[in-house]
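Before relying on records like the one below, remember that each one covers exactly one chain. Contacts with other chains, cofactors or solvent are not represented anywhere in the record.
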Amino acid sequence: METRQSRNYMERLRRQLRFSNRLYVEPQGSSGGLALWWDETVNLSIFSFDRFFFDGCCSVAGSDTSWHFTFVYGEPNIQLRRPMWTRVMEMRRHTSTPWLLMGDLNLVGDSTDKRGKRPPTMLDRTILHELISVCSLREIGFKGLVFTWTNRRHGEENVRERLDRALMNDSWHRMFPKAQLFHCTRMGSDHSPLLLSLQAIPETRRKRFRYELKWQMQTGYSDAILQGWSTDKTGSPLFYLMSKLHNLKKTLQTWSRNVPKRPQEEIDKLQKELDALQHNQSSISTIEQEENLIKKINTLWAQEEAHWFQRARANWINFGDKNSRYFHAVATRRRQNNHIFQLKDDTGRILDKEDTILNYVYSHFKQAYSSQHSPNYNLIADLI
């Protein structure tokens, strides 16, 4: 990272963040300066470095797998960019080992990488395209902000560019096929921090609304239905119906937040109370309490059974016994059945890796739906 700070300041920050190893290049005046920090979970060997890059080899502690890296701060002076990038290309142009190049390249690839004022320079575009071509690199797909740098000016003076990138060769991609790059939110800098995850980070998907059968056994359910179905919208019959359904969904979502998600904890608590009552001498009051507890437990059992019944899609069971483990097992097995663990390709080869399966399925349907042959409409008409 470009520090623009003295070594003493960076050392205080490093100790606060608990990185055990470091390497610095001092800034020149109020610009430049590089810092590289790492901890004991990785092993780094630095081959060379200067005020524009760190070049070396990285491996995870306890692993035999290693790869080369070049962390870059691109030359900001447009007149001096060509010599700097020529050095980088000469270092790695013939390498076949896994290689990652990442950092502030100070290069704008094309017009989609810039907003405001003048378009990208031809020199920037040429250098970036040469770098990718000569070193056989490709970009790691990113998520987050499109532009990673801004001049932080207002109105028409505002300029935004994508200067920060992560490039990889094929060997590195085969080593980390699920790598993802994130453009994080800018805070104290005019650049967005880059976060590179070597393993795919699952996307947090918006939870889909599901109607729960167990809600029908809850107090206040009928009132929520009546409130949600009431609407004063006007319009066509279809619009009126859609408005009612939308309003009902919102009402049920709000109401269900106060409904216990899983009643098992409450069942366990009530069963302990029931057990304590049944150990006491029977009286009219304790018998009434016992009957009330049994009624509550039966209601909660019915809710728990309905929860797993709905997920198991077992239409051939009609809320018969209190065997929620069965419904849970059926739902779990259905999830497993919906997952493809292996596929056999056209040559009979077994594919068992997720990315290989995805590529094969994509290629299969791409070929199936991009046929150049015209359909035989006469044959179709005869079949009809």
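Residues 314-320 have pLDDT under 50 and may be disordered.
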